[in-house]
Amino acid sequence: xxxxxxxxxxxxxxxxxxxxxxxxxxxxxxxxxxxxxxxxxxxxxxxxxxxxxxxxxxxxxxxxxxxxxxxxxxxxxxxxxxxxxxxxxxxxxxxxxxxxxxxxxxxxxxxxxxxxxxxxxxxxxxxxxxxxxxxxxxxxxxxxxxxxxxxxxxxxxxxxxxxxxxxxxxxxxxxxxxxxxxxxxxxxxxxxxxxxxxxxxxxxxxxxxxxxxxxxxxxxxxxxxxxxxxxxxxxxxxxxxxxxxxxxxxxxxxxxxxxxxxxxxxxxxx
Amino acid sequence: xxxxxxxxxxxxxxxxxxxxxxxxxxxxxxxxxxxxxxxxxxxxxxxxxxxxxxxxxxxxxxxxxxxxxxxxxxxxxxxxxxxxxxxxxxxxxxxxxxxxxxxxxxxxxxxxxxxxxxxxxxxxxxxxxxxxxxxxxxxxxxxxxxxxxxxxxxxxxxxxxxxxxxxxxxxxxxxxxxxxxxxxxxxxxxxxxxxxxxxxxxxxxxxxxxxxxxxxxxxxxxxxxxxxxxxxxxxxxxxxxxxxxxxxxxxxxxxxxxxxxxxxx
Lengths: 270, 265
Known about the structure:
The complex is a heterodimer.
Chain A: H1 2-11, H2 25-51, H3 62-71, H4 73-107, H5 109-124, H6 127-138, H7 142-166, H8 170-178, H9 183-220, H10 226-235, H11 239-267
Helix pairs in contact in A: 1-2, 3-11, 4-5, 4-7, 4-9, 4-10, 4-11, 6-7, 6-9, 7-9, 9-10, 9-11, 10-11
Chain B: H1 2-6, E1 15-26, E2 29-40, E3 44-48, H2 55-62, E4 70-75, E5 78-79, H3 80-85, E6 89-92, H4 104-113, H5 129-135, H6 151-163, E7 169-173, H7 181-198, E8 201-205, H8 209-215, E9 218-223, E10 228-234, H9 249-264
Parallel strand pairs in B: 3-8, 3-9, 6-7, 7-8
Antiparallel strand pairs in B: 1-2, 1-4, 4-5, 9-10
């Protein structure tokens, strides 16, 4: 295994990821080591399945999965877009709601006291338990999935945003008082920009959880989407398709995460 | 408040700040008790004293951050609130308190932006933010973000920001306390130059006896429990002050005198 890792090391020297420009060789090998490990694990999986003659419906070989991925690409793509739209919409709705409510909390202790326990309560309900209720309310269309995805994003962003808006140092607030700044000036010029690093840590969490929300919603009741495809291929013992769908789902999460990270790099330069 | 301005018997117009039996209380704790001082315009005073003697509290009292429990405080003959609204004074904190997302220049411009949209008449100094950065020796670093600057440079940006509305009174709360000695010496000299150039009054809180003697025309010694004036010491050293004044016997004598006073506190 060590040998394979080292091979991976050398082979991937030119495979630089969009991390940060001007990395030296050490950082490159930092990236190559986990990649080499992943490649060797896949190789072990392939060998194991072939050596012990595991039936395809129990555990397909990576080569089967790759083959299905290419062959069923249009099916996967057809089911990718609904999930993508639900995830992105849920991401936007959930985070926007969380940001606005966080702003209300910071400006009024009464609002915070009134609604924060409710927010905590909603967060304690397992998403799997609340999903059927939401599907009953909103029907089997996209709305229910968007609401579930939004709900799963909501709480981490709310908590982080409240912390971010309050993370202004006392001296900075004294400075604004000496400059006789108004409440809205303090908000736009001080509180909001200083909350951005906190907001982006929450958005990075939300980028992957919103996809989970959309897929869970599709499990309960949907005929399109990656979640529906997962259920469908499981019940039909089409394991290679199931695995391919799982990889596409995780790819969607990675895509969302990378988009958030790129936006963060552009916005938070300090 | 208007009475003060109309009352000709008080020579407040000559005073950058006046305190009359001013006290500050935090609950049951008396932070400052019956402070009476007249700080003439153009003076450079340093404030020295043991921890908890109310040095910072005094600056915050003058700058309208903390109300007086009793007594009167005025800045240039106005109430502290009126003086704050007119931007008569500026404050430099121990930490530079720069906004991390703004460049050096944008940080210096901040006081000019606050209140502009509300139509408030902001006094513009006779120096532009760019000129002020040049004055503090940061020409060419206008676009640098705070994290790209050293501690001393950040504090110089904070000083430039404090000067942008051309305040008549500059309140400095241990501004160089967190800096290394070399940087501190350099900034001390630069501050004396700025003081000479702008003619502003400076109230400067410090923990360092040597810094207090080197910078101040007067050293105000406070004592604790409750915070009150121990002594006001005139520092009669040749002007303009140069670094080598520290090697003179006179300088050393002042330092040991202040150290004795501190030990009595």
